[in-house]
Amino acid sequence: MKLNESGLLIVISGPSGVGKGTVRKALFELEGHDLEYSVSMTTRPPRSYEVEAEDYYFVSESEFKRRIEADAFLEWAEFVGHYYGTPLDKVQEKLAMGKEVVLEIEVEGALQVRKRMPEAVFIFIAPPNKDALYRRLQRRGTETADTIERRVVKAEREFPLAHKYDYIVVNDEVMNAADRVLAIIRAEHAKTERAIYKYNALMGIHQDEDE
Question: Where are the domains of the chain?
């Protein structure tokens, strides 16, 4: 039985190319967790290996903008000509069920979530160094040199924002990084501020809020 009944929102974020998607997938391959992935929505075309409703919800720009007008996103951002966003209703539904909900989003989106849901856990995925970031972007083989350069420039602006997160995990080796993220999630569940009320109920303890 979990000590906390409400769901926990975990935000995995970082500059484009740091491998946050790879870390997230490795995290879900680990045993001993009850994580739910919140699938983001985007207007960019799917890459050859991506699956609808598993990697992203792929929609038209007009549909995405309609959802913006309806305030249907927890966060959204425009990057290199495409929109990305997190459907709010799906996140709220899973949290209400007590699920551990994982978002994998860009830095701009994570800072929006920080303002809207400050109780979430924010994890910044960082590359071992800048050269590793550039090599990873090149290895994708899915983007032009100009797009890669724009992503690198954007990453340079985002690296200093790591201090706005709760944790920093260096993606030096994917499984090591995934293990660290899972350890963070487990530790967050045990935090007194999250677990104390259920703990008191289990132990039959009455505690005034000002004690």
Answer: 8-38+99-203
How far is residue 97's CA from residue 3's CA, in Å, rounded to a whole number? 14
Judge whether 73 and 89 are in contact, CB under 8 Å.
no
Which tens digits make up the pLDDT trace of 184-201?
Answer: 999 998 787 666 766 777
pLDDT digits (tens, 9 = 90+) for 159-172: 999 999 999 999 99
Give CA separation, 8 vs 11, 97, 107, in Å: 10, 10, 19
Token pair in block for residue 37? 């992935």
- Domain 8-38+99-203 part of CATH 1.25.40.390: no
DSSP string for residues in 17-72: TS-HHHHHHHHHHSSS--EEE--EEESSPPPTT--BTTTEEE--HHHHHHHHHTT-
Does pTM top 0.85 for this prediction? no
Distance, CA of 68 to CA of 41 (rounded, Å): 12
Q: Where are the alpha helices (DSSP H) in the chain?
A: 20-29, 61-69, 88-96, 107-116, 130-140, 145-158, 174-189, 192-203
